[in-house]
Amino acid sequence: MIEITAATIAELTGGTLTAGTDPATLVDVARIATDSREVVSGSMYVAKSGEHADGHDFMAAAFGAGAVLALAERVVPADDAGTVFPAVVVADAVLAMGTLASEVVRRIRAHSPLSVIGITGSAGKTTTKDLLAGILSPLGETVAPVGSYNGEVGVPLTVFRAVESTRYLIIEMGATKRGQIAYLGAMVRPDVGVVLCVGSAHAGEFGSIENIAAAKGELVEALPPHGRALLNYDDARVRAMAVRSGAPVTFFSSADAPVLDTEDVPATTGASTSADGQAFLQARNVQTNADGQPEFDLLFPGSTEALTVRSKLLGLHHVANLLAAASAAHAVGAAPEHIVASLNEQRAASRYRMERTDRADGVSIINDAYNANPESMRAALRTLAELGGSGARRTWAVLGEMLELGEESVLEHDAVGRVAVRLNISRLLVVGAGARAMHVGAVMEGSWGNESMFLPDADAAYELLVAELAPGDIVLLKSSNGAGLRFLGDRIALSPGNRPTNTTNAPSGERTAQP
């Protein structure tokens, strides 16, 4: 464990100890909690102000559950007699968490050869970190985010789970504005940085896709000269980030013969290079099998012998995630044979990411409703179309709103509806007012009759699906997290005889992870 005294926490964060707080109070950083319901004996409770609640209001509950110290933004009375809860009071509890996380990384590096791997991109971060954790865990103590903890709170919580013997620390990095990934990079000081793609997710908050690219590239700029940047060559905006890196660059690509763009690619990208002078990890002969799972030949940098990947993940879009995980594992010293063997065994580890359930009555459910943007919507629809086998099975696309698209929201939703028509999806169910433009786009495409329907909410979609699904049907559910279609997916994944009478709410214990 890594322990820090209350006095040291105050010194590091510029905070002050409340009256009566013992400066020698020890905090095991693995027991730092931001939710009073997760406090255990010996915890430090972080009382932060959130969108929906003020953590200071739950201070009594936290100490009742066994907290020994709080990290707070104000003094909180413990009783009517003037006693206050023991705390380190700081100006900003979230920033103070980041300072403590940075200290934890420093202490581990002083004790062992830690490798920190940062992963960012508009889509695929969680799947990639799951794959990478699966590869690295047998090779050394590995810590990776729970769920999608990838922000200013989630990253410190991930770091706090590391100990002095941790060998690999995998950090997922998300952002809703410029500067956030630079902040996370300064916090954890990554040795390896992976950039997957630049899409239109959060375009409404960033203002433009160019700003998104600038933000994602902050990870590359955070790398030390002895580190390594791993970039998706098939995404032009990611490829262009190579010039922003002070570290060597390795590209990963699924193009059989990537065309080098000398304006985007620096002349020297490291010692492990292909014949054209660039470092590449490359997938060749990419295809999907009858179950929609990607297969390809994988060529590692500096090697002429390809190894065969037969993934158990669902969808061709996972090729980039598989390559990113392989590239990161290779960068920290994993053997190619071990990497491929692990990729061939792993299934989806996090929920609601192309999660397939085959019901006893022959209906297949694909629940991919944890996140959505125009790029991932198209990829999921293509996978659905492939699984349908040109009409061999009836395909249903149950689609909800893609959030945070800004001024382009209506046009992007309209375009997705048209894609569903062009892919000849059998039925399109558009759920919720925010997604209605998908239905309008499908109707306006002109090649359908009544195959597209607009439904006001998930309950209406549930009733229709219960009434009309038939053996052999394949159902895709896809929406942003906030639209809640993942819970609809849980409901219809149950066989008809086992359906609950009321499952409108989230499953017991379900909590939304850091966005």
Strand fraction band? 15-25%
Mean model confidence by pLDDT: 89
Strand order of the largest sheet: 9-10-8-11-12-13-14-15-16
The CATH superfamily name of the largest domain is Mur-like, catalytic domain
Measured as a percent range, the helix fraction is 25-40%
Count the strands? Answer: 22
Shape: globular
User: Would you state the CATH class of the largest domain?
Assistant: Alpha Beta
Largest sheet: 9 strands, mixed
How many H/I helices? 17
Q: What is the CATH fold-level name of the largest domain?
A: UDP-N-acetylmuramoyl-L-alanine:D-glutamate ligase
Radius of gyration from the alpha-carbon trace, in angstroms: 24 Å
Q: What's the domain count?
A: 3
Instruction: Give the low-confidence spans.
Output: 265-277, 501-515
What class would the helix/strand composition place it in? alpha/beta
Assigned CATH architecture of the largest domain: 3-Layer(aba) Sandwich
Distance between the termini: 28 Å
Summarize the structure.
The protein is an alpha/beta fold and 515 residues long.
Task: Report what the structure shows.
It is a single chain. Helix 13 runs parallel beside helix 14 and helix 14 packs across helix 15. The protein is of the alpha/beta class and 515 residues long. The C terminus is likely disordered. It has 17 helices and 22 strands. The protein is 32% helix and 18% strand. It is globular, with a radius of gyration of 24 Å. The protein has three domains: 89 residues, Udp-n-acetylmuramoylalanyl-d-glutamate--2,6- Diaminopimelate Ligase, Chain: A, domain 1 (3-Layer(aba) Sandwich); 237 residues, 3-Layer(aba) Sandwich (UDP-N-acetylmuramoyl-L-alanine:D-glutamate ligase); 144 residues, Mur ligase, C-terminal domain (Protein-Tyrosine Phosphatase, Chain A, Alpha-Beta Complex). The strands form four sheets. The protein has a nine-stranded mixed beta sheet.
